[in-house]
From TrEMBL:
Residues 28-102 form the RNA 2-O ribose methyltransferase substrate binding domain. Gene3D superfamilies: 3.30.1330.30, 3.40.1280.10. One of its GO terms (cellular component) is cytoplasm. It comes from Advenella incenata. GO terms for molecular function: RNA binding; RNA methyltransferase activity. This is TrmH family RNA methyltransferase. SMART domains: SpoU_sub_bind (SM00967). Keywords: Methyltransferase, Transferase. InterPro entries: Alpha/beta_knot_MTases, Ribosomal_eL30-like_sf, rRNA_Methyltransferase, SpoU_MeTrfase, SpoU_subst-bd, tRNA_m1G_MTases_N. It comes from the Bacteria. GO terms for biological process: methylation; RNA processing.
């Protein structure tokens, strides 16, 4: 393990660049759980950054044992904290190459399209929900918050590694590759209740921007618009909550008991 004391060190400068979102080819994984999940799916990262005061913690020791010592860097606490995006870091971070999924050729199993979603917490929660519901492919339109930002990664709690996340997608291109209908979340005229009839076993669900909802062009191209019945006490549901209700109602209807 190499010791680093200077903020001018290349490893420190690269870590700060990744944490700030200025490196689009790498991601920062903070904390024991995310590092463990990365190792399970992808193996050793590019580099392991360790906080000097945490080097003897059991969880950190265990993660270090699973990585080549040549990839490990011991950082003075001040340097480690300068990279970390949380106030109370857990003493270990991975810098890793951002996974790039294969291009979509056809889609025939339930997937999720997110239209200009802005809030990192919402996106992370939706990714975690999608993984729990058995969804494999999540597609993000242009204008969505970055799926691999530290806030989204923390919110999703490892769900990224159970999904194929396709960013900067163009809806007409994906529409032409679907072997299933498009169901869009909407409160507009013509939408039917989620509970009014049977849902298809597979579809592309569309959940829209927190304030503006689904883009009108996508609503017009959807096979069916769906609304979730609610009281008049609030105008609408949170996007992450709506996505969970939609996905798990479909899962409920098609569960093999």
């Amino acid at each position: 393990m190499k010791q680093i004391q200077s903020k001018d060190n290349l490893v420190v400068r690269q870590g700060m660049k990744v944490a700030a979102g200025r490196d689009k080819t790498r991601i920062l994984l903070e904390g024991v759980h995310l590092c463990e999940e990365w190792l399970k799916r992808y193996g050793p990262p590019e580099s392991v950054l360790v906080q000097a005061s945490a080097v003897d913690q059991p969880d950190v020791v265990r993660l270090l044992a699973a990585n080549d010592a040549a990839r490990q860097y011991l950082l003075a606490d001040a340097l480690f904290n300068a990279i970390a995006t949380v106030q109370t870091p857990q003493g270990i971070m991975f810098v890793a190459t951002r996974p790039i999924p294969a291009a979509i050729t056809r889609l025939a199993t339930t997937a999720l399209w997110l239209d200009r979603l802005q809030d990192p917490g919402n996106l992370g929660t939706i990714l975690r929900t999608a993984a729990a519901a058995g969804v494999r492919d999540v597609l993000l339109s242009a204008g969505c918050v970055g799926a691999w930002s530290p806030k989204v990664l923390r919110s999703a709690q490892g769900a990224h590694f159970a999904l194929e996340i396709h960013e900067h997608q163009h809806f007409p291109d994906i529409r032409a590759r679907l072997d299933m209908p498009v169901l869009a979340s909407s409160l507009g005229p013509g939408a039917r209740s989620l509970y009014a009839g049977a849902l298809p076993a597979a579809c592309l669900w569309v959940v829209g921007n927190e304030g503006q909802g689904v883009h009108p062009a996508i609503l017009a191209d959807a096979d069916q618009c769906i609304f979730i019945p609610q009281s008049d006490a609030v105008e609408s549901l949170n996007a992450a909550v709506a996505a969970a209700i939609l996905l798990f109602e479909q899962r409920r209807q098609h569960m093999q008991v």
